[in-house]
Structures are given as structure tokens and as C-alpha cells.
């Protein structure tokens, strides 16, 4: 589509949102980038997809995408999950942008629940869909109070929670959405990615943007920013391991989905990141 | 098998096709027209306009048709459309005192200037299924046109009480209220923003919360001082003109609740107010809204906050059915990755527990 920002689909503006709304969201993004990990309130709009389906990520993507971008959308690591298909079609229709399922070909990756296995580059932006942005929400229900706690960096209750886990179970019993400290200042929820993906956020070359539509918050981790998963010196943060490797490509370094193959308990494990799995098979086939 | 798990694109296309067919239903049954919905399902249209925050009967009827009669889905459609519209102007406050009323009742005075006007209400019908109400048997003989009564002034009940100082005065309006569709809601929210939130809030949610105040969870001794349904003019004041211009008329339902208040060290005993307003005929919503509005004023009136209906973060963050419906139903979306992470964790915890048992 060569008409650029003037392009409309079915009477809607380029990428659905009107330009005033995009400007408001871009301002929130700029503030978020300037204060890594800080949750910036923004006037989230209703989108034609339901809340909980990624409206925050969609609004962020709609505000940063241009006609020359190439968009990849994944859900659970895969491009072909229904919600990823639906969001990709939404942008193909409303913005007319090129889409891809290759991580390395994308300029913007919108994701739900995973970070691609392929390391991201400086010229890429990853947009996370966030259901609950507040890392301390389960400890304190009141927004006024959690904002105060962030202002004072009063993160003791979170460490107490982790300590109680260790005292009771011998380990931290948070497997996904594992809290991180950003740039040594703000406690942040990484969105419900498995903690397996947490280390990929640290010093990432790509800009990481987080959008929570229903909760009306945007936050960000600029490139090359420290992102540390909370832990204790005698109980360092660890990521999950599998005793298996991918049944299709043989990878033993990627996050594996468990697939049940019959009603007698047989199962196999395959890469959750379908692009990564395909790349490995392509390399193997070439060898 | 693995390939079959991931057939997203074709599955969506097929689902949309099935949905289109299901929406239409049997083709031998005539298709609903928008005019039929607008005229004969008018209260559904009113609710969708109110919670969708758009006053447009034809658009609401279209949304109801597209949503197969699922009103929350229709509200969602309307909201998603509304959000793309520019905000061109802020109207002047509407004057329900000058409304052309089709209904006006007060539960506090048997008779009052202007009288009680029932209008088209279900209130005193017997809820007996009308088996005569089929497509051909439901014809209604129009009532003979009555001679227009001399329009008698209908002063507000709250105004009558106000003359004696028995009810708190309405707070002086601020220059321009905030707009929660343009600025994110921050806590604590002022009353104007709270009322905006309640006005588009889910009727069922407000009904239950209002009901809870009547059942002892922050009881506020309400009386329906006045309920009005009528048409009001919408006026804007273009800066370049300097005088108001009427841009249209809308129907609204308004409830002014009169509530008890003991008084305090600084204020003598005086009735207090709760307020509800909705588009079209949404009387139940307006009454419930007024109860919740009054409950949310607890702090301002020096009352102890003990119940959910008084807790603004609880009420305002949970009132929106488009948000709630989305997040509740997002549980349908895949969570394979998180679940896998939990599976791994629970297996390791179980291994540890077994080892600990074995060691004992």
C-alpha cells in the first residue's frame, strides 16, 4: 500500500486508531521508555477485539506501525494459533502492512506468552500483550496503594512472598509472569511468559514495549537495559529444564509444549516457537 | 496430529461462516429489519446505547442484530465504533427540569406540582404471558389522541426540598468534567468521573451492588425522590457564536434519590443525594446507579467504608462489562505455555515431596 498514512480500510484510519489516539499512545510510550519499568497510565480505547485478547498490545502496535513495517504475531510461540492469526489479519486489513512468520524478517513482533527463541536485533521492536500489569496485584488489590509502593520502591512484600515459597516448598512457585527488577529501580511484570524466557529480556538489543488495554497501562524496557529476575543469593533464579528434546527438530534448548498423542498417556514434546523449529529443520535438511 | 492442532487460519474462516449462518437462522423465517428492532425491541436498543455510550438508535439496532441479540456483544460493537469517533464539542448540562416528560413519578410525595405521570410502564402489569401476542394477534388499538393538557410546570422534588434546606445543595459544578474515555481513570476519582463510569457500567452489576446496599451492606436509607423519563434538548455553545445552539433531542431516564443523613459536627441533619442517568428508557439502571452513586459518596459524607458498594476501586474497576466480558472469556484462549510451565513445576514439587517422604 503506497498511500501510507492516508490509507483507510472500510472507512477506518490507517491501523484502525485515529491519529489523535496514536499520538496520545506514542506519548505514553515515550514516557515509558524514559522510565524503564514504570507503568504509564494511558487512555486505552475499546478495540474491535475483546479485552483479554491483546487490546493493549494491539494499541501499541497500531501506534508504532508504519506502512513499511513487517509484522509478526505469535501466541504461545506460534504464528498459527487462532488469536495470532486474527490479530495478524486485523493489521493486514486495517494497515495493509506486510506480515511474516519469520522472527528475523519482522520489524515488529507482537506476542502473547512467549519471547522468540531467535535473539532479537536493534532494529526490531517486541510488543507484549499484558493482562495484569501490576506485579504486586496479588499482594495488594488497591491501585492507589501499589502506586505508592512503586514510588517508594517498597518491594519488601514481594521478597517476603518469594521467601515464604522457599520456606514452604524449597523453591519459588512462580512458573510464569515471574517478577523482574528493571534497571535496578522498578519492579515489573514481564507478562505471562514462562520464566524460561525471562533471561532473554535482560540487555536485549530490541526495544520491548508492554501494553495492557483493559488495565490502561503501558510500560517499556529500552534496549540494553538490565532486567533481573528476583531471587536471593542462596536461592538464585533458575529456568525450567526438560528431560526431553523436541520430537520434530531435536532442540534441547527451547521451550517445549507437551502434546498428548493418545488416550493411554503417550506424549511427545515439540518446540513452542514454531519458527525456531522450522529454522532448525531447514538447517538440518540443508546439511 | 501436531499439524492438526495448529490449523488456525482455516478454522477461523469456517467459524465466521458458521456464525453468519447462525445469525441468520432458518432462511424460511423472514429476516429482522433494523426498524423492527428499533421499534419493537426498543428497551434493548436503549440499554445498548446507554452502556455503549453512543446515542444512535439505528446503530444500536444494527449492533443487536449483528450480535444475535447478545446485548453485551452489541454494547461491545458500539463501543468499538464509538472509540474511533472524534470528540467535537462538550454539550452544556442538559436540563431535565425542562424535559418534555413521558413519565414522572415520585415515591416521596403522593401528589406534587405537575402530578404523577405513569407513562408506558410495566410496573402495574400482571406478569402473565400474553398468548395473544403472536405476529398477527398482537395488534394494539391506538389510544384516541387526547387533547394536549396545558403544560404544567413540573418542578423537581429535590428543588422543593431544597427550598427548605432539607436536602444538601448540589455541589457547584466544576468548569468542565473529566472524560474517562480520553483520560485513564485515576483513584480517588471525583464524583463526575464516577458518574460517567456508572452511566456506562453494566446494568446487572449496578443492580446487584445497589441491591446490596438495601440488604445492609452500607445501607443508605434511600427514597426515590423522583424518576423522570423524557426528551431533553442537547445544546452546545460554539466559541465563535457565544450563544447556545440546539443540536438535537435525546430521551433520558433520570433518578434523583433522596437519602438519609444524620448530620455531623459541622452540618445539621439533612437529606443527601444519589443520582442516576441513562439514555432512553433505562429506569432500572438509573435507580441502581443512584443507589451506588450515593454509596460511593461515603468518604465525602464521613461514613465508614465497610461494604463493596462504597469502595470506589472495587466498583469502578469492575463495572465495565466490555472489559469484564473480555477478560473473563479470555480464559478460552490458549494457555499452553503457562500451563506447561506449571506442569513442569508441579512435577518437580511432587518429586521433591516423594523424596522427602522416602527420606522420613
Number of strands of chain A: 12
Order of helices and strands of chain A: HEHEHEEEHHEEHEEEEEH
What gyration radius of chain B follows from the Cα positions, in whole Å? 26 Å
| Helix percentage of chain A | 25-40%
* Structural shape of chain A: globular
- Greatest interface (CB-CB under 8 A), with counts per chain: A-B, 66 and 49 residues
Which range does the strand content of chain A fall in?
A: 15-25%
The 3D shape of chain B can be described as: globular
- Poorly predicted regions of chain B: 1-5
pLDDT under 50 segments of chain A (min length 5)? 1-7
Task: Give a brief outline of the structure.
By secondary structure, chain A is an alpha/beta fold. Chain A has helices spanning 19-34, 55-64, 82-95, 143-151, 156-169, 198-201, 274-286, and strands at 40-41, 70-75, 98-99, 108-112, 125-129, 180-182, 186-188, 207-212, 217-221, 227-229, 256-260, 267-271. The two termini of chain A are 39 Å apart.
Question: What tags apply to this protein structure?
Answer:
heterodimer, A: 287 residues, alpha/beta, 7-stranded mixed β-sheet, 3-stranded antiparallel β-sheet, 7 helices, 12 strands, 28% helix, 17% strand, globular, B: 360 residues, alpha+beta, 4-stranded antiparallel β-sheet, 4 strands, 40% helix, disordered N terminus
Account of the 3D structure:
Chain A has about 290 residues and is of the alpha/beta class. Chain A has 7 helices and 12 strands. Chain A has helices at about 20-35, 55-65, 80-95, 145-150, 155-170, 200, 275-285; strands at about 40, 70-75, 100, 110, 125-130, 180, 185-190, 205-210, 215-220, 225-230, 255-260, 265-270. The relative contact order of chain A is 0.16. Chain B is an alpha+beta fold and about 350 residues long. Chain B contains 13 helices and 4 strands. Chain B has helices spanning about 1-5, 10-25, 35-40, 40-50, 55-65, 70-80, 155-165, 190-200, 205-215, 285-295, 310-320, 320-330, 335-360, and strands spanning about 100-105, 220-235, 245-260, 270-280. Chain B has a 4-stranded antiparallel beta sheet. In chain B, strand 2 (about 220-235) and strand 3 (about 245-260) form a beta hairpin. The two termini of chain B are about 45 Å apart. Residues about 1-5 of chain B have low confidence and may be disordered. The interface between A and B is large, with 66 and 49 residues.
Amino acid at each position: 500500500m503506497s498511500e501510507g498514512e492516508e490509507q483507510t480500510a472500510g472507512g477506518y484510519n490507517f491501523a484502525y486508531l485515529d491519529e489523535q489516539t496514536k499520538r496520545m499512545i506514542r506519548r505514553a510510550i515515550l514516557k515509558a521508555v524514559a522510565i524503564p519499568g514504570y507503568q504509564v497510565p494511558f487512555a486505552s480505547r475499546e478495540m474491535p477485539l475483546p479485552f483479554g485478547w491483546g487490546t493493549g498490545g494491539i494499541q501499541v502496535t497500531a501506534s508504532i506501525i508504519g506502512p513499511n513495517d513487517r509484522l509478526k504475531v505469535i501466541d504461545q510461540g506460534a504464528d498459527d494459533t487462532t488469536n495470532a492469526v486474527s490479530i495478524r489479519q486485523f493489521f493486514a486489513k486495517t494497515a495493509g502492512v506486510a506480515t511474516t512468520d519469520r522472527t528475523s524478517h519482522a520489524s515488529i513482533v507482537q506476542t502473547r506468552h512467549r519471547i522468540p527463541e531467535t535473539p532479537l536485533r536493534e532494529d526490531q521492536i517486541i510488543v507484549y500483550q499484558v493482562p495484569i500489569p501490576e506485579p504486586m496485584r496479588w499482594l495488594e488489590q488497591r491501585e492507589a496503594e501499589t502506586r505508592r509502593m512503586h514510588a517508594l520502591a517498597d518491594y519488601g512484600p514481594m521478597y517476603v512472598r518469594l521467601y515464604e515459597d522457599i520456606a514452604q516448598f524449597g523453591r519459588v512457585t512462580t512458573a510464569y509472569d515471574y517478577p523482574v527488577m528493571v534497571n535496578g529501580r522498578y519492579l515489573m511484570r514481564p507478562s505471562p511468559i514462562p520464566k524460561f524466557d525471562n533471561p532473554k529480556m535482560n540487555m536485549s538489543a530490541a526495544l520491548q514495549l508492554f501494553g495492557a488495554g483493559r488495565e490502561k497501562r503501558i510500560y517499556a524496557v529500552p534496549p540494553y537495559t538490565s532486567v533481573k529476575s528476583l531471587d536471593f543469593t542462596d536461592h538464585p533464579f533458575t529456568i525450567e529444564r526438560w528431560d526431553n528434546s523436541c520430537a520434530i527438530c531435536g532442540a534441547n534448548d527451547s521451550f517445549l509444549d507437551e502434546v498428548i498423542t493418545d488416550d493411554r498417556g503417550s506424549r511427545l514434546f515439540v518446540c513452542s516457537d514454531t519458527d525456531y523449529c522450522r529454522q532448525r529443520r531447514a538447517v538440518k535438511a540443508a546439511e | 496430529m501436531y499439524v492438526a492442532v495448529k490449523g488456525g487460519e482455516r478454522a477461523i474462516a469456517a467459524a465466521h461462516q458458521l456464525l453468519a449462518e447462525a445469525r441468520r437462522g432458518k432462511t424460511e423465517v423472514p429476516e429482522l429489519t433494523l426498524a423492527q428492532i428499533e421499534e419493537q425491541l426498543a428497551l434493548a436498543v436503549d440499554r445498548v446505547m446507554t452502556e455503549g455510550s453512543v446515542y444512535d438508535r439505528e446503530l444500536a439496532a444494527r449492533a443487536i442484530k449483528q450480535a444475535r441479540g447478545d446485548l453485551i456483544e452489541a454494547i461491545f460493537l458500539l463501543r468499538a465504533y464509538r472509540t474511533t469517533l472524534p470528540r467535537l464539542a462538550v454539550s452544556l448540562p442538559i436540563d431535565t427540569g425542562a424535559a418534555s416528560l413521558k413519565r414522572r413519578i415520585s415515591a416521596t410525595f403522593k401528589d406534587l406540582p405537575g402530578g404523577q405521570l405513569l407513562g408506558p410502564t410495566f410496573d402495574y402489569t400482571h406478569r402473565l404471558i400474553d398468548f395473544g401476542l403472536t405476529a398477527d394477534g398482537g395488534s394494539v388499538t391506538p389510544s384516541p389522541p387526547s387533547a394536549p393538557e396545558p403544560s404544567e410546570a413540573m418542578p423537581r422534588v429535590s428543588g422543593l426540598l431544597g427550598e427548605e434546606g432539607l436536602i444538601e445543595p448540589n455541589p457547584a459544578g466544576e468548569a468542565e468534567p473529566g472524560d474517562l474515555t480520553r483520560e485513564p481513570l485515576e483513584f480517588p476519582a471525583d464524583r463526575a468521573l464516577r458518574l460517567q463510569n456508572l452511566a456506562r457500567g453494566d446494568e446487572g452489576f449496578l443492580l446487584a451492588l445497589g441491591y446490596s446496599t438495601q440488604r445492609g451492606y452500607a445501607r443508605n436509607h434511600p427514597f426515590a425522590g423522583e424518576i423522570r423519563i423524557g426528551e431533553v434538548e442537547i445544546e452546545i455553545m460554539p466559541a465563535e457564536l457565544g450563544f447556545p445552539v440546539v443540536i438535537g433531542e435525546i430521551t433520558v431516564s433520570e433518578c434523583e434519590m433522596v437519602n438519609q443523613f444524620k448530620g455531623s459536627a459541622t452540618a445539621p441533619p439533612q437529606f443527601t443525594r444519589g443520582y442516576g442517568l441513562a439514555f432512553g428508557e433505562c429506569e432500572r439502571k438509573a435507580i441502581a446507579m443512584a443507589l451506588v452513586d450515593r454509596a460511593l459518596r461515603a468518604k465525602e459524607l464521613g461514613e465508614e467504608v465497610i461494604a463493596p458498594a462504597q469502595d470506589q476501586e472495587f466498583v469502578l474497576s469492575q463495572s465495565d462489562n466490555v472489559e469484564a466480558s473480555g477478560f473473563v472469556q479470555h480464559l478460552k484462549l490458549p494457555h499452553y505455555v503457562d500451563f506447561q510451565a506449571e506442569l513442569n513445576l508441579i512435577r518437580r514439587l511432587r518429586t521433591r515431596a516423594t523424596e522427602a517422604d522416602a527420606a522420613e
